[in-house]
């Protein structure tokens, strides 16, 4: 089945579709990284567009740094809080919620001081013991007002006296199945002193758990406490302020659907939490505790307000990381939650959000998978990015206008990853196709040329450029005899030449040369085109020496094969001509078919020099320009000054003998010096002096290169001929070649 799909719609599409379905499964599973990225995007929206502050009847009595500096260090005596409650109630506060827990006896109560300090004078102890108990004073203040005490979940391993079994129950009812399994739960609570719990009008949890990255984004409206449920501090303050009626929990199979408080339905997530929509910290939301207690607060400031009591003093460390990217006092988060409830501005993460995100992501990824192989890449990528950008903007508009949270990250990331995968697959497919073309095309021309043409398609046009190049021509001597030995086996001759030409081609390509063409048993190549090669003359010389060595090794192997098979063995002897000069290089031919080749006089001269290898009995002959460019790296031996057929200008030619091993041999310099003297005498028509130096030169030259002996023998015959029949008076020392 997979093979069928692969053939019908392409393997890349099959893999991409599998990855799309995998990404859908990952989103449904919602692992931590996906969850964190989504939350960060919502935080970014929050920071771009925080909630606008509006006047709402919610106030924080703040135990700030100024209050501690004026009224004394923390903790304050309970009598101070009693003053705070009485003053707030007298100013018209509807109800007061404490984001502070009073779980232990007041150590600053006069009775506690008298009891704990037995060394005090008896009369002072009696006076202190007769003073009112501050915990009782605070409890009495609670009874004179409507106070909601804060409670918190006990940390694991903590040793607390009070548990939820002693807590006063908050009236509530359920509509639907038990939501307990879905809620944040606390097995035990840290409670206030019993008389404070008894004197309170309500009891709310101020425990808020951060997300895994430490940011407080969600606040529970309700939480499970053992076998019952309890409202959060802000919702409990609202319940008490609206008459203290039982709250109602609506639930379904997916968890909590909402909580009804004072006749108002508060929609929640399945776990009973909501997402507050925060403003930046607003000073108008706060009243300093010192101003309230000392009577400096404007009269009526708290009339009709729901009041929280909490701390923002730095030393008390009640700060939380908020989605706005700043630290915020914990009590302010509770106050802003209550503002959201009163103004109906909670952030909404609807149940259909995940369906929208999955559908958008799937449709976008599917279109990318289908269209990538058949559409223009630029149009596809631009279209996809516009679509994804539009979706991201739509997500922000939903947040800005309706407070609805639709994840912008998953569809965008899934779409971008799909584009990257399909683009990579296309690139790899095209690269594989290019490699196939290069491999096929490279059987005929240089791989460098193939690469150059594949990277610069504009080079596939007729025309050329003028460049200095070094050219090499190679041909097999006495090829007719070799071919004749295969007259009964033409296939064998083909195999032999294929093996032979492969060796020559590799030597050329190893030195970054370009193979222009094969002409039967001959090869034409050049360097410094199409790719630049600063040492093209040296590269050509190196290639020629490698070619000679490879042919010698090939002959050795062939001779062994011929002996084993009883066949006739013919040694392959090649001649090479090398020349450097400015040529026109480019695509030459017709509009229907053209070749990348070189044209110019240096090409003809290089071909002629290859022909002279037979005349001068030297395998590698180079022109003067090549000698000038490479003479410091290779051993060259001057052969003659000739005028090749078809050319009027004379050319000084050299034999390439070898590399630095010969170049650094003192014997080579000795024969080079003698050869220069001999040629000088020869061109001056001093035949006797030339012959004398030649006689001295020949044994030395043979010791350096055996082939020099044949060349010098030819020169000896020529000098002897001129002795008997001197050249014309206008002879300029140039030998006129009669063969190509």
Strand content is 15-25%
Sketch the major β-sheet: 9 strands, mixed
Whole-number mean pLDDT: 87
Helix % is: 40-55%
Tally the beta strands.
27
SS-derived structural category = alpha/beta
CA-based gyration radius: 50 Å
Looking at how many chains there are and whether they match, the oligomeric state comes to: single chain
**Terminal CA distance:** 67 Å
Helical element count?
A: 25
User: What are the segments in which pLDDT stays under 50 over at least 5 consecutive residues?
Assistant: 1-8, 157-165
What global shape is seen? Answer: elongated
Word description of this protein:
The strands form six sheets. Strands 19, 20, 21, 22, 23, 24, 25, 26 and 27 form a nine-stranded mixed sheet that branches. Strands 1, 2, 3, 6, 7, 15 and 16 form a seven-stranded mixed sheet that branches. A four-stranded mixed sheet has the order 4-11-12-13, covered by helices on one side. It is built from 25 helices and 27 strands. The longest helix has 33 residues, at 409-441. 47% of the residues lie in helices and 20% in strands. The model is unreliable at 1-8 and 157-165 (pLDDT under 50). 38% of the residues are buried. The two termini are 67 Å apart. Helix 1 (2-9) crosses helix 2 (11-29), helix 14 (377-402) packs antiparallel against helix 15 (409-441) and helix 18 packs antiparallel against helix 19. The chain has 740 residues and is of the alpha/beta class.
């Amino acid at each position: 089945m997979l093979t069928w799909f692969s053939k019908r719609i392409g393997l890349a599409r099959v893999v991409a579709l599998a990855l799309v379905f995998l990404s859908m499964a990952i989103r449904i599973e919602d692992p931590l990284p996906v969850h964190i990225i989504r939350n960060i995007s919502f935080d970014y929206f929050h920071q771009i567009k925080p909630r606008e502050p509006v006047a709402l009847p919610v106030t924080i009595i703040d135990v700030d740094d100024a209050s501690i500096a004026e009224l004394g260090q923390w903790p304050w005596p309970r009598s101070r809080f009693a003053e705070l409650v009485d003053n707030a109630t007298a100013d018209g506060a509807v109800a007061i919620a404490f984001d502070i827990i009073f779980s232990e006896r007041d150590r600053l109560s006069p009775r506690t001081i008298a009891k704990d300090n037995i060394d005090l004078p008896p009369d002072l102890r009696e006076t202190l013991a007769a003073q009112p108990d501050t915990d009782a004073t605070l409890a009495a203040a609670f009874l004179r007002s409507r106070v909601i005490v804060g409670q918190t979940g006990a940390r694991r391993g903590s040793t607390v006296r009070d548990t939820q079994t002693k807590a006063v129950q908050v009236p509530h009812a359920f509509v639907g199945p038990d939501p307990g399994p879905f809620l944040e739960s606390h097995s035990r609570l840290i409670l206030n002193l019993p008389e404070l719990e008894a004197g309170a009008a309500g009891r709310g949890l101020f425990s808020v758990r951060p997300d895994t990255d430490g940011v407080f984004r969600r606040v529970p409206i309700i939480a499970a406490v053992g076998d019952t449920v309890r409202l959060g501090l802000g919702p409990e303050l609202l319940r008490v302020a609206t008459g203290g009626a039982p709250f109602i929990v609506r639930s379904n199979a997916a968890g909590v659907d909402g909580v009804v408080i004072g006749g108002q339905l508060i929609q929640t997530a399945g776990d009973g939490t909501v997402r507050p929509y925060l403003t930046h910290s607003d000073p108008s939301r706060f009243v300093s505790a010192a101003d309230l207690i000392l009577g400096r607060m404007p009269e009526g400031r708290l009339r009709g307000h729901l009041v929280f009591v909490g701390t923002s003093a730095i030393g008390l460390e009640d700060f939380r990381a908020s989605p706005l990217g700043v630290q915020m006092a914990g009590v302010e988060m509770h106050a802003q939650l209550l503002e959201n409830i009163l103004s109906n501005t909670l952030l909404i993460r609807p149940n259909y959000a995940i369906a929208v995100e999955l559908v958008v992501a799937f449709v976008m990824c599917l279109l990318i998978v289908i269209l990538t192989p058949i559409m223009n890449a630029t149009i596809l990528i631009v279209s996809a990015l516009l679509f994804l950008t539009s979706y991201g903007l739509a997500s922000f508009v939903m947040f800005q206008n309706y407070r609805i949270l639709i994840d912008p990250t998953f569809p965008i990331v899934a779409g971008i990853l799909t584009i990257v995968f399909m683009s990579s697959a296309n690139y790899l497919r095209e690269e594989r196709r290019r490699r196939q073309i290069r491999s096929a095309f490279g059987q005929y021309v240089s791989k460098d040329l193939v690469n150059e043409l594949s990277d610069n398609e504009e080079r596939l046009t007729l025309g050329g450029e003028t460049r200095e190049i070094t050219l090499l021509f190679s041909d097999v001597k006495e090829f007719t005899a070799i071919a004749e030995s295969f007259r009964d086996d033409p296939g064998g001759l083909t195999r032999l030449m294929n093996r032979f030409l492969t060796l020559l081609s590799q030597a050329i390509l190893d030195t970054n040369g370009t193979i222009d063409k094969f002409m039967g048993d001959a090869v034409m190549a050049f360097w410094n085109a199409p790719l630049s090669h600063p040492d093209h003359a040296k590269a050509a010389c190196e290639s020629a020496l490698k070619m000679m060595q490879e042919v010698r090794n090939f002959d050795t192997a062939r001779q062994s094969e011929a002996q084993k098979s009883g066949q006739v063995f013919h040694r392959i002897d090649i001649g090479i001509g090398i020349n450097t000069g400015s040529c026109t290089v480019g695509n030459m031919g017709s509009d229907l078919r053209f070749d990348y080749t070189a044209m110019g006089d240096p090409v003809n001269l290089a071909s002629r020099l290859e022909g002279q290898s037979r005349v001068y009995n030297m395998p590698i002959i180079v022109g003067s320009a090549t000698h000038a460019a490479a003479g410091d790296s290779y051993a060259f031996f001057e052969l003659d000054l000739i005028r090749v057929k078809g050319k009027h200008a004379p050319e000084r030619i050299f034999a390439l003998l070898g590399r630095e091993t010969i170049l650094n041999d003192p014997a080579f310099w000795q024969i080079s010096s003698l050869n220069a003297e001999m040629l000088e005498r020869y061109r001056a028509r001093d035949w006797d002096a030339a012959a004398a130096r030649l006689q001295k030169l020949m044994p030395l030259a043979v010791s350096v290169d055996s082939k020099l002996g044949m060349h010098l023998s030819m020169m000896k015959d020529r000098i002897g001929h001129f002795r008997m029949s001197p050249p014309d008076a206008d002879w300029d020392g140039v030998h006129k070649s009669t063969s190509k």
